Amino acid sequence: AGRTYYIEVVGSGGNPLPDSVVSLYRNGNFITYDDQGGGGNDSRIVYTATQTGNFQVEVGGYADFYTGDYHLLVNEDDYKGTVDLETNGYNFNIYGNGTLGAVNTLGSQTATINYDGDADLFRHALYRRSY
Question: What's residue 89's pLDDT?
Answer without folding.
Answer: 37
